[in-house]
Write a structure and sequence with these properties.
The complex is a heterodimer of chains A (about 200) and B (about 300). Chain A is an alpha/beta fold and about 200 residues long. Chain A has five helices and ten strands, in the order ββββββαβαβαβαβα. Chain A starts with 6 loop residues before the first strand and ends with a helix. Chain B is α/β, with parallel strands linked by helices. Chain B has two domains: about 10-130 and about 285-310, Aspartate/ornithine carbamoyltransferase (Rossmann fold), CATH 3.40.50; about 135-280, Rossmann fold. Classes of the chains: A alpha/beta (about 200), B alpha/beta (about 300). At the A-B interface, α3 and α4 of A face α9 of B.
Chain lengths: ~200, ~300
């Protein structure tokens, strides 16, 4: 029996191609019109697979005044995103299984899209000691993407160890391509203007 | 057999079996009131230990003494070594004193190999850096044979810090020679780059490998590794790569648990596992003496037949 999630999308353009009609039966694309489907005039609209955002800040726990899992995922769903990765710089930091599981469960409860917590690579994002990456990978959140985000892992040996360690459970690291020691105290782009203004580049 | 025992790879299948068979004969000595044989009377064995090792040094010392050899213990502490004497000068001194065999333990990989070029006697590697510890592998194989009746065809899983382990290197080589199937399990950070070329399998998943293992050998986690960034915490290491009662329960009925010692109870091995009937840890120590007797005996010119006869 087809439910509310069965559609006939008329005039829609898959991946921006030629206009056509798509049939959706309980959330799944099918070849023929399902019974009880609602018709929708999608003229001028583009059909895409669910988008995945690899880099969001849902701010929960710790900065619920700025964003919550509920508000962030609602916005994501409205924009066509079916999965978001939530960065680890929460308060407390998502560097243990308990925090990533909490974020994951908040995403499940909100029900707007999948939430994949990103685990911190190092304890407290401090770049000194590996966080319990294996415990986060084996938690209910099944973390596979790890990042210290804006803090970067700037110790090359620690980065090597982290990358090697993740091979045990097919994890990956997302890294800002920068070394914070090159921009210590920096205020603006280094060049003619920074020279004239006397600001650190 | 070669004149020296520097690596487990120095032993072909026949050599390795000869050592194990000889050790088996010599082990019967341990049950007799007088545990001594006259076989190496008048021969001099030097224990040259640059690293602390009570257990291995004592084992070699006892082995040589049970064969009636004269034993000299030459430890780095309080010797001319601490005054800056080079390995070569130490070797030449021992050579001048007429050492028939030098048992060497050194923190540098390759030290016994260097030593072997400077002296006429036999050199036995008693552990060099992160390279090899061939007599440990021999006593491990001996223990497997004693408990399980064979080595060939056994599935042996070696778990832990393979990167820094001389025990693992020697065991992989010897067990391969003897026809066992070896699987290494470790966090990827504690496996050497190039391990793919070794004659063994590699896995990161202990739970998947344990039920298929006849032997699980747990390696010691060195204290300094715990703070070297190779794994996040001791707790996570223990959870992912430690042998606890839950994992032990998934072993086949006859499977055994080995550890070269000294153990970190609660880190790589739970106390209840170390003290279980599967554990061979105490037997390994006892077998170490027999195997080292066999090695010294065979290197210093004894034949198999003679060994059997004198032990009879």
């Amino acid at each position: 029996m087809s439910g509310q999630n069965s559609w006939v999308l008329k005039g829609v353009r898959p991946l921006g191609g030629e206009p056509t009609t798509l049939f959706v039966d309980d959330g799944v694309l099918v070849d023929a019109e399902p019974s009880g489907a609602q018709s929708f005039d999608a003229d001028g609209l583009i059909a895409l697979p669910g988008l995945v955002d690899l880099h969001t800040h849902l701010r929960e726990p710790g900065r619920e005044d700025a964003e919550t899992v509920e508000t962030g995922t609602l916005a994501a769903a409205l924009g066509g995103f079916t999965a978001v990765h939530a960065m680890a710089n929460t308060e407390p930091v998502a560097d243990v299984a308990g925090v990533v599981e909490q974020v994951w469960r908040l995403g499940q409860d909100a029900g707007h899209c999948d939430v994949h917590p990103v685990g911190a690579v190092t304890v407290g994002l401090r770049g000194e000691q590996l966080a319990e990456l294996g415990a986060m990978a084996e938690s209910a959140a099944r973390v596979r993407v790890f990042s210290d985000d804006g803090k970067c892992v700037h110790d090359p040996m620690l980065m090597r160890r982290a990358l090697e360690y993740l091979r045990a459970f097919d994890g990956v690291i997302a890294q800002h391509a920068q070394d914070p020691r090159l921009t210590d105290g920096a205020q603006m782009n280094e060049g003619v203007q920074s020279a004239r203004l006397g600001l650190v580049g | 057999m070669n004149r020296h025992l520097l690596s487990a790879a120095d032993l072909n299948r026949d050599d390795a079996l000869l050592v194990l068979d000889t050790a088996e004969e010599l082990a019967r000595l341990a049950d007799r009131p007088i545990k001594k044989l006259p076989t190496l009377r008048g021969r001099t064995v030097v224990n040259l230990f640059f690293e602390d090792s009570t257990r291995t040094r004592t084992s070699f010392e006892l082995a040589a003494k049970r064969l009636s050899a004269d034993v000299i213990n030459f430890s780095a502490k309080g010797s001319s070594v601490s005054k800056g004497e080079s390995l070569k000068d130490t070797a030449l001194t021992l050579e001048a004193m007429g050492a028939d065999a030098v048992v060497v333990r050194h923190s540098a990989s390759g030290a016994p190999h260097r030593l072997a070029h400077w002296i006429r006697g036999s050199v036995v590697n008693a552990g060099d850096g992160t390279h090899e510890h061939p007599t440990q592998a021999l006593l491990d194989a001996f223990t497997m044979r004693q408990r399980l009746g064979r080595v060939e065809g056994l599935h042996v899983t070696i778990v832990g810090d393979v990167l820094h382990s001389r025990v693992a290197r020697s065991n992989v080589l010897l067990l391969h020679t003897l026809g066992a199937e070896v699987t290494l399990v470790a966090p990827p950070t504690l496996l050497p780059v190039g391990v793919d070329a070794w004659p063994c399998d590699v896995s990161f998943d202990l739970d998947a490998v344990v039920p298929k293992s006849d032997v699980v050998m747990m390696l010691r986690v060195q204290r300094e590794r715990m703070h070297g960034g190779f794994f996040p915490t001791t707790r996570e290491y223990s959870r992912r790569y430690g042998l606890d009662a839950r994992r032990m329960a998934t072993l086949p009925d006859d499977a055994i648990v080995m550890h070269p010692g000294p153990m970190n109870r609660g880190v790589e091995i739970a106390a209840e596992v170390a003290d279980s009937v599967r554990s061979t840890i105490v037997e390994q120590v006892a077998n170490g003496v027999s195997v080292r007797m066999a090695v010294l005996y065979l290197l210093l010119g004894g034949g198999m037949a003679e060994a059997v006869e004198s032990a009879a």
